[in-house]
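note to self — DONT lose this again. spent like an hour looking for the file last time. sequence + predicted structure for the chain T wanted, 246 res
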Amino acid sequence: MHRHVVITGASSGIGAACARHFQKAGDRLSLGARRSDRLPGVAAGAFHHALDVTKPASVERFVAAAIAANGPIDILVNNAGLARGVEKIAEGTGEAWREMIETNVLGLLEVTRRVLPHMLAASKGHVVVIGSIAGHKAYVGGGVYCGSKRALQPICEAIRMETLGSGIRVTSVDPGLCETEFSVVRFRGDQERAGKVYQDTRPLTADDVAECVLFAVDRPPHVNLDTIVVMPTDQATPQMVHRGGR
C-alpha cells in the first residue's frame, strides 16, 4: 500500500533526497518549499505547492492542498530549516536569530499541529524531524542555531507522550556534517566560504540521511526509532573534523 508522504523544504538537499527515495519506493508525494519553482524537477509527477513554514496561512494552504491532492497524510518529514551566520551571542543583531527560531522551531510546530489531528483521527502516522548534531553539542558561533535544534528534542518527546496509544510514531534524524546547500544559505550565497566547510574531508551526502529516514519509516508498526544520530566517519563533534590524509 503506497503511503502519502509530505516533505517540507523539499526543493534541495535532504528534503529533495527524501523525495527521490520515497518516490522510488512507490509512495505518493506532496512537496513544499519556498523555492517552489524547483519542486517540479525534484520528483517528476509529485504534487508540489509553495510553502513558507514561517507563515501560518501558507502552512494552512499547503496542508489542505496536499490532503486534497493525495488523501490522508501517512508520513510527515519536517525538513525545512536553516542556519544563518556564525554570530557570537555578544555580537548578534537578532535578525538571524529570529529567522532561525521562526523557521526551525515555530515553522515545524505550525506544520505539525495541522497534520497531527489527521493522524490522530486515523490512529496511525509517522512524524519525522530532521534535527542535527548541533542539537546535541553546541559550538562557538552556533549558539542560537544549536538552541533551535535542541528545542526539537523536547518537542518530539512531548508529541510521543501526547500521542501515546494512538499508533503514531515520532523519529528525529540528526545528521552531522552533510554537504548540501546548508552552508551556502548560512553564508548568504558565499560559495567559496561554504566550500571550505567540506574541504578535504568526507561529509555525509543528502542521500545518506534520506536512507536513515526511509529505514525508520519502514520498520514494523510496533517499532519506533526514537533518535538516529548519523555522523561522517571523519567527524567527532560539530567542530572536530578530520581533514586531509586518511
